[in-house]
Amino acid sequence: MNDKPSALIHVVEDDAAVARLIAAALERYGFRHACFGRGGDFLRQLRVQAPDLAILDLGLPDMDGMDVLQQLRGRHRFGLLIVTGRDDTHDRVMGLELGADDYVVKPFEPRELIARVRSILRRYQPLAAGEAEAPRAASFAGWRFECATQRLISPAGGEETLSLAEAQLLTAFLERPNQILSREQLLAGRDVCALDRSIDLRVSRLRKRFEQGGHSGKFIKTVYGAGYLLAAPVSWC
């Protein structure tokens, strides 16, 4: 018998009908949940209890969802799924850059929402006892990436901590340098459609990290019709 409680999901959505739809889907699939109609109420609850994942609407009545994202990623570590009615690529890119793990656009199918929730939760699962790997670090094009801490260190010595999604994407490239990786390969293990363009947004976000560190990021190359490639030698230690 498994006595482990199901994952706790916080739903931050001011549209009561949408919140009910999400809550019903979560309950149907066995997730615990709590709903918040305002960003401030959600942030105050985090002082008492953090969820395993938050589903966050960007259009909240008391504060912009982007502001909520900025506060979350500086202080907390749990899964973040954006639910938005903003059919704007810029908003989705910005959300991912601020640390969201994925997004879904309204209207959406409840099954798609649950698939994305499960996918994000898997990424945040701790390793079982005895499964911990020895810390690894990769050096490439003057950069260094430490897997255990998710730290990216620039050639000039500047340091940034990547989000979990960014770290997983960069690790996929570093483990198979100078190989074309399809979107399906980069989305391995995630319950999303292979045609989903969120991987393109993730690659764009990762490139921007390198640009901010004083590099063009051009060693992550787009191979049109095939996928992406990290064009740099990589050494591990």
Automatic annotation (TrEMBL):
GO molecular function: phosphorelay response regulator activity; transcription cis-regulatory region binding
Gene3D superfamilies named in the record: 3.40.50.2300, 6.10.250.690, Winged helix-like DNA-binding domain superfamily/Winged helix DNA-binding domain (1.10.10.10)
InterPro entries, A to Z: CheY-like_superfamily, OmpR/PhoB-type_DNA-bd, Sig_transdc_resp-reg_C-effctor, Sig_transdc_resp-reg_receiver, WalR-like, WH-like_DNA-bd_sf
Entry keyword set: Activator, Cytoplasm, DNA-binding, Phosphoprotein, Repressor, Transcription, Transcription regulation, Two-component regulatory system
Major subcellular location class: cytoplasm
GO biological process, one term: regulation of DNA-templated transcription
Keyword set includes tRNA processing: no
UniProt subcellular location: Cytoplasm
PROSITE patterns: OMPR_PHOB, RESPONSE_REGULATORY
GO cellular component terms, A-Z: cytosol; protein-DNA complex
Statement: the UniProt record of this protein carries the keyword Nucleus: no
One family name in Pfam for this protein: Response_reg
Coiled-coil annotated residue ranges, if any: none
PANTHER family: AEROBIC RESPIRATION CONTROL PROTEIN ARCA, REGULATOR OF RPOS
The protein, known as: DNA-binding response regulator
Organism whose genome encodes this protein: Thauera chlorobenzoica
